[in-house]
Design brief:
By secondary structure, this protein is of the alpha+beta class. The protein is built from 2 helices and 15 strands. A hairpin with a 4-residue loop joins strand 5 and strand 6.
Length: 288
């Protein structure tokens, strides 16, 4: 179980849970699943033809139990625009998007192939190559405080063209009442891609790779999820990333109190037995 203010690398072996059962407790992080064979020039790529990313999506869905609420945002209902956005409402998943105020060139916007040609390495992952997706080179936040459960316990999504400019990518999970301090610390940090993905595209820079990410927590509800994008090369070589198909899970009955350990449970039982015996002795004394 991960505690607040903890940092966990996505690829820690103990957390590799593809195909795991749902009997676990606490935060589970799926390993990053990346497909490096995406044909970024033809634009004919469809997610359900993929190998590992599609399997990872299926593994994530097995973590959600019957009765849990699933919500998805494909961005297909939005109109693509070349204008950057500082905020956006994703009503289908009950989230408000706020984009960071850093030096991002794109900040954040809804794009399609008209505004972001497939040769740039990003693409729609819903299955309709003319659909829209979220493009940014800056950090952004999903705020779920207005959702039915006042937060989420599971999140999965696709990312395209990540990590080809030595950048980093992390998720920061914040429960109600938690905040990021002046040093940039707070909540639970999951380091996703602290490594370089080698460029494979025809222009030697945009790799066009597809990656899937996901986490599940049956003990905690997170009010905010911050997507932290680190740029290693400043404005000379920024990593532009496409995000699509956000799938969130609101658990029907998340466990907010951990199950007592055997020793603690035995102590409780012994105390109850002692109280029962004392009550019996008191009752017998009154009858005498």
């Amino acid at each position: 179980m991960l505690k607040p203010l903890s940092s966990v690398r996505w690829l820690v072996p103990a957390l590799l849970v593809a195909g795991a059962s749902v009997s676990h407790a606490g935060l589970v992080v799926l390993p990053v699943a990346t497909d490096t064979s995406t044909p970024i020039v033809s634009g004919e790529y469809v997610v359900n033809q993929a190998g590992d990313p599609a399997k990872a999506r299926g593994d994530f869905k097995t973590l959600l139990k019957e009765g849990d609420t699933r919500k998805e945002e494909t961005f297909s209902g939005f109109v693509a625009s070349s204008n950057p956005m500082s905020s956006l409402t994703l009503s289908s998943i009950g989230a408000e998007v706020t984009v960071g105020t850093g030096s991002g060139l794109e900040t954040g916007r809804i794009v399609s192939r008209t505004y972001d040609p497939i040769e740039n390495g990003r693409f729609d992952t819903t299955g309709d190559n003319n659909a829209q997706w979220w493009l940014t080179d800056n950090s952004f936040e999903l705020n779920f405080s207005g959702s039915a459960k006042k937060g989420i316990s599971a999140l999965a999504f696709y990312g395209t063209d990540i990590g080809d400019f030595d950048g980093s990518f992390s998720l920061r999970l914040l429960k109600a009442g938690e905040a990021v301090d002046a040093n940039g610390e707070g909540g639970t940090l999951i380091e996703l891609i602290p490594f370089r993905q080698q460029a494979t595209s025809n222009n030697g820079a945009n790799n066009g790779w597809l990656s899937h990410f996901g986490f599940y927590d049956d003990e905690n509800v997170y009010e905010r999820v911050i997507f932290e994008l680190g740029q290693a090369n400043g404005d000379d070589g920024r990593d532009f990333i496409g995000f699509d198909d956000f799938l969130v899970g609101e658990l029907n009955d998340p466990t907010t109190n951990p199950v007592p350990e055997p020793g603690s449970l035995a102590l409780v039982c012994a105390s109850l037995l002692a109280l029962t015996a004392a009550r019996r002795r008191r009752t017998g004394s009154n009858k005498a």
